[in-house]
Each structure stands twice: as structure tokens, then as C-alpha cells.
Amino acid sequence: IQLAEREKAIWHQANYDFLTGLPNRRLFQDRLSHKIDRVIRTHKSFALLLIDLDGFKEVNDTLGHDQGDQMLIEASNRIQNCLRKSDTIARLGGDEFVVILNDIENRGSVETVAQKILDTLMRPFKLKDTAFISASIGITLCPKDSLEMVELLKNADQAMYAAKENGRNKFNYFTPEMQQSAMTRMLLVKELRQAIQEEQFEVFYQPIIDFKQNRIYKAEALIRWRHPERGLVSPIQFIPVLEDTGLITEVGEWIFIQAAQQANKLRQTFDSDFQISVNASPIQFHNQSVIDWIDLLNGMSISPHVVAIEITENTLMETTRVVSEHLLRLRDNGFQVSLDDFGTGYSSLAYLKKFDIDFIKIDQSFVRNLSTHSSDLALCEAIIVMSHKLGLKVIAEGVENEEQMNLLSDAGCDYGQGYFFSKPVDSESFEQFLLEFDAQNAPSEKMMQS
Ligand code: C2E
Ligand code: MG
Ligand code: MG
Predict the structure, then answer these.
(1) 233-270 residue pLDDT tens
(2) Distance in Å, CA 131 to ligand 3 centroid
(3) Ligand 1 midpoint to CA 373 (Å)
(4) Mind listing the pLDDT tens digit for each residue in 312-332?
(5) Is 136 in the pocket of ligand 1 (CB under 6 A)?
(6) Is the beta carbon of 235 within 6 A of some atom in ligand 1?
(7) Which of 211, 220, 281 has the alpha carbon at shortest distance from 253?
């Protein structure tokens, strides 16, 4: 008898989730495969719902794992209360739950349950403090979408992912188009790995003009991907994928080295103040990679002044300790920091001061419609005055014509960047551009001095 008890205990341990007491992934897969068999015999449908809590990691990080565990237990109870006896629920791990709704008549009945789950999770959680959470739900139907277990789980996952992308706290059905876009993405990831191996990336440079001195000693490094068949691919299309896959670390380091060497070279040959700014994504702050850049420069005996790091307001607003520590450490090591796309996010003045930002880059959306008396001009002027009061320099992005340049320059803007001066170009053309610009502008300046 004792042995039987022990076996039972072991079986229970292997099949049930320790925290919530729900079936675990293993038992769930067992049940799911039985349900599929049943669909084949009875032709009755079921719906598979994948429920993922939104922002659970933050709850865990801020309230502690203990409280996180309590929330998971409470969430599992609440979800169960939305189900019938005949339905199945399991915890797949982390903050992921899965539900099978049996013998469904129509979409309406599925949606009623899904909405009920979203509503019940929205109610406050009475932990040590009151906490709030929401969930995103992906739904796939069997046999309509598939009769394969692996595929059903994948469908639900893609649908859940789409619900998150749509703004969270939503449910979403799987569609064949999702399958298509997931495949396109997978292909893109494969091609990007290949691009790293075969060195298909290039760094382009776009000059940044000093308005007052009419002089160029700054530029921004912008990545380009020369795809063997599709030609130049815009970073907007592949940077997010590099970020999601973590490949951004490796590629970002490569860009950083190229830019630092290029700036160092230009300091020696062209202008001893030359500085090139490099874009860094939040991911590179979360892992150590931006900190590695300090040693990288040391190793090349290049001064940190040759580069500036461009971060977005999102990075700045991350209140996690890691990000702020990294930012301050970069500052202490002599790196300058630019705040990119300023005006599109929600950063506060307090942050600009706290992190000792050096440059503000006014987003192109404000520069695009600049004209005398326009509200965008008032905004640009306000940003410039505010920045100067705080001791920051201002760079205007997306300057495309002379009028914009004059308005910005009159408003006291320090620097401008945009197609009016030059598009981003490869390093060779960039050096050529610098020489030509110098030849056009330097003589008069020298004449004035003499
Ligand atoms: P960003 O950092 O704000 O870069 C400025 C973008 O504006 C560049 O687009 C540039 O080509 C474009 N631009 C410059 N002047 C003008 C203009 O006068 N008019 C218009 N319409 N556009 C102008 P690009 O090169 O396509 O890069 C897009 C974004 O991709 C960048 O925005 C940046 O967020 C990201 N990115 C580019 N290179 C890197 C990189 O090496 N690392 C990371 N993490 N992100 C990068
Ligand atoms: Mg930038
Ligand atoms: Mg920008």
C-alpha cells in the first residue's frame, strides 16, 4: 500500500503544478490529445484559449516573488470560476494558462467566456498592497484551424501575441494570415543570422551641421542591410526583429566599433572635435552590452568623446535600476548621451536633469510642417529654450529645406540633420562630402579671420 501511495504522489508531482494545483503542461498535452481524438469521432468542436498575464514580470519584480505567487494562485482561481465543470484548465508555466472549452456551439459562447476571464482578472488583487493586472488571450478552434496538437498550441500562441500587439487586455482569434506573417518573420530571422555571418550590414553616416559655425564635426551612424536580392533594407523593418531575437547585441557592437573607428579617423584627418552618435536600443541597456562598449574603446585606445549614444525616451523612462546605473556609468566614463526622437514619448524634465543628457534631438514630426506662426514652430522654440535653460544642446532631425533650417536657426537651435544637407551615405561618400563642404565654406571663414 505504501508503495502505491508513493507512486501516486510521484505521479501527482509529475502531472500537477505545484503552485496552483492545476494540471501542468504534461498532463494538459495528454488531455488535449484525447480531446482531439474525440473531435475526430464526434465532430464536435472545442476552443483552445491561451491566457498570458500582461506585465506580470513587473509585478513580480516590484512586489516580490511571494506576492507574485499569490497573484498566480488567485488568478488561476478566478479563471476557473469562469469555466464549466467539463472545461479544462492548466498552467503551462510562468504566467501562462491554457483553457479548453468543450462542445462549443458558436463563436459567441467562446467570446463570452474570454471576456469574462478578462473582466475577472481586471478586478484588483488584494495582496500586501492592492495590485492590478490584465491578460491577453489567443483563441484557436478545433477542428476548424487544425487537428494537430502542436499546431493548435502554436496557433493559440500567435493569436495571443497578436492580442498583446493590439494593446493587451484583449482576446484574439487565430487567422491563417497570422501563420503567414509568422512564417515571414521566421524567414527574416534566418536571413538576419545569415546576414551577420556573411557581413551584409553596412554603416551609413549622416552629417549633423552646427548652425552657428556652419561647420560639420558631428554625424549619426545608421545601419543598412544590403540584402543579396532585395537590395538596401530599411532598419525600421529589421531592427525590431534584431531586438526580439537578441541579435541586436552582436550587430550593435559591430556598428559601435565601426562608428568609433570612423570618428577617430576623422578626428585625426578632418576635425579634432569629430563625434559620431550611435543608436542604442533599450535591450542593449538591459543586458550588459552598452557597458562593454567602455572596455571596447579602451582596448582600441580611442577616447570616449568620439562617440555619443542615442537613446530613446522609452529607455530613459525605464525606472529599473539597471538602466539608470548603466546610463550614469557611461556618463562617468566620458560618454555623451543624446535623447532621440524627442517629443514623441513621455519623458519628464526631471529625467533630463537626473541623467545629465547632453543633446536633445527634436523629432522629425515637429520639423516636417514648420512654417512661420505654426504651432510646430512654437513647440520647437519651447523645446529649444527649455533645453538651453537645462544646459542641453539641441539637434533638429529631418531638416529637408532651407525654410526649415532658417526657422530653426533663428529659434536658436544648435544643430541640424536632414536630407537638406545630406542623406545618410556610406563612409567613402561621407568623407567626400565633408571635404566638399569644407572647400565651400572654409575659404570665406578664413578670409574673415585674416
Ligand atoms: P533615428 O535614430 O531617429 O534616425 C533618423 C532617421 O531619419 C534615419 O532613418 C534617417 O535616414 C532619417 N532621416 C534623416 N534625415 C531625414 C530627412 O530629412 N527626412 C526624412 N524623412 N528622414 C530623414 P533610418 O536610417 O531609416 O533609421 C530609422 C531608425 O532605425 C532610426 O531612427 C533608429 O531608431 C533605427 N536605427 C538605425 N540604425 C540603428 C542602429 O545602428 N542601431 C539601432 N538600435 N537602431 C538603429
Ligand atoms: Mg538616432
Ligand atoms: Mg530620431
Answers:
(1) 999 999 999 998 899 999 999 999 999 999 999 999 99
(2) 36
(3) 28
(4) 887 877 656 777 888 889 999
(5) no
(6) yes
(7) 281
> How high is the pLDDT of residue 92?
95
Looking at residue 372, its pLDDT comes to 87
Q: Which of 431, 20, 89, 442 is nearest to 262 (CA)?
A: 431
d(CA 15, CA 351): 49
Contact 99, 53 (CB under 8 A): no
Residue with CA at minimum distance from ligand 1 atom 43: 279
Q: Cβ(234) to ligand 1 under 6 A?
A: yes
| Ligand of minimum distance to the alpha carbon of 206 | 1
What percent of the chain shows pLDDT beyond 70? 97
Cα 341 to ligand 3 centroid, rounded to whole Å: 4
110-164 pLDDT, tens digit per residue, is 999 999 999 999 999 999 888 899 999 999 999 999 999 999 999 999 999 999 9
Residue 290 CA: distances (Å) to CA of 80, 89, 331? 45, 43, 12
State the pairing for strand pair 88-93/96-101. antiparallel
pLDDT 10s digits, 168-182: 999 999 999 988 888
Ligand 1 pocket residue status of 312, Cβ below 6 Å: no
Centre of ligand 1 from the C-alpha of residue 363, in Å: 11
Q: What is the pLDDT of residue 59?
A: 84
The Å distance, Cα 156 to ligand 2 centre, comes to 36
Ligand 1 center–CA 315 separation, angstroms: 17
Asked if residue 419 has its Cβ within 6 Å of ligand 1, the reply is: yes
What pLDDT sits at residue 244? 85
Model-wide pTM > 0.85: no
What per-residue confidence (pLDDT) applies to 324? 81
Q: Which residue has cell 534584431? A: 242
Q: Check if 258 has its Cβ closer than 6 Å to any atom of ligand 1.
A: no
Residue 383 Cα distances to 207, 214, 377, angstroms: 22, 22, 10
C-alpha cell read off for 413 = 537651435
Q: Which of 432, 377, 380 is nearest to 216 (CA)?
A: 432
CA-to-CA distance for 285 and 281, rounded, in angstroms?
Answer: 7
Are the beta carbons of 413 and 384 closer than 8 angstroms? yes
How is residue 418 written as a grid cell?
536632414
244 contacts 188 by C-beta, under 8 angstroms: no
Give the mutation target among 361, 397, 430 for probing the ligand 1 site: most ligand atoms within 8 A of CB. 397
Indicate which residue's Cα is closest to atom 46 of ligand 1.
279
Mean pLDDT of 39-63: 91
